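Hi V.,

You were right to ask for the full record rather than a summary. Here it is.
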Amino acid sequence: MGESVVFLLFFWLITVLLFLFRREFRWFHKLLVVLVFLIFLGFFYQEVSSAIAIILESKWYQFSDQLFYLINTLFLFQFFYWPMALFFVFFMGNIKDAKVLIYFSLIFSMLIIIVYFVINFSSIFSNSLTSIN
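Predicted structure:
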């Protein structure tokens, strides 16, 4: 679990930084979002510190293995995401929000599927994939 947690926390950090630039939210909401992120960062401190050590030691083959693990995890995550997204679309009152959710879901899914098939069926990455499975 630690391999994918580091990437998810990294993406979460990016979204927190983007959230901080929104003017519609008050400083209190921004502080709570940062606090929740810091709690999860503290909870997974050991995984994050080992990932930073790997990056600083230039062990990029381990970094690529973690990236492949994340892609496989995101591909499997879609089995849970799509039923929930379609359920929310069915009960949304605003058609614009429903369309935005469907468009985002389709773009996200197509991107993950393309990357998954390129990585898993490419001979360039065959050495890294055998170490994951």
